[in-house]
Amino acid sequence: MPTPAPSSGGVYLRAFEPRDVGMVRDLATDPYTALTGSLAAGATIEQAREWMARQEERRATGAGYSFCIADAGDGRALGQVGLWLADREQGRGTAGYGVAPAERGRGVAGSALAALTAFAWTLPELHRVELYIEPWNVASVRTAERAGYEREGLLRSRQVIGGRRVDMLLYAALRP
Predict the structure, then answer these.
(1) Which residues pair with 133 in a beta bridge?
(2) pLDDT for residue 121 is more than 80
(3) Whole-number Å distance between alpha carbons of 85 and 126
(4) 4 vs 133 pLDDT, higher one
(5) Is the pLDDT score of 12 beyond 80?
(6) What would the DSSP string read from start to end of 106-170?
(7) Which of 25, 28, 29, 108 is at a distance of 20 to 30 A from 35, taking alpha carbons?
């Protein structure tokens, strides 16, 4: 884990801890979360623990960094943000985020994305961080733009979500 912990606007990024199970289970109540990641819909306590273990495994294997978004005041878990490094050799990373339903509407995702992006620039090989957002997801578009990402275009039929091919908006941030 990086030290000091990446932070921005009232949140900081840290490893998942056993006390975060409740937030992970809240995150699992959002049906879209299960369609776009590895967290089971309606996750049990055990499934939440397994998901948190997979987040640490990603860091250990070099696949990327998955952080718990924590409240800067009390350390309470608010969501998850990740930097995935499959295209690291080409200087690219991909970011993703999810905020627990109980914590939405307060700018948590934008602050977490800003902290993650600043962290990305500490990795010398990265020059670009990309986001892929479904066009209907207006809240995520606002989050990306608030964090300084710019829209680069529409990728038609980009990937499968929920068993169907969907278009994705491409947003990116470039190393300053």
Answers:
(1) 169
(2) yes
(3) 9
(4) 133
(5) yes
(6) SSHHHHHHHHHHHHHTTSTT--EEEEEE-TT-HHHHHHHHHTT-EEEEEEEEEEEETTEEEEEEE
(7) 108
For 149, how many CA atoms within 13 A lie in the half-sphere containing its CB?
31
Are 68 and 80 within 8 A, CB to CB? yes
Which domains does the chain possess?
A: 7-125 (3.40.630.30)
Dump pLDDT digits (tens) for 22-76: 999 999 999 899 888 889 999 999 999 999 999 999 988 989 999 999 999 999 9
Three-class SS of 45-72:
HHHHHHHHHHHHHHHHHCCEEEEEEEEC
CA gap 148, 15 in Å, rounded: 25
Q: Which two tokens stand for residue 156?
A: 């038609």
How far apart (Å, rounded) are the C-alpha atoms in residues 23 and 152? 33
Contact (CB, 8 A) for 172 and 152: yes
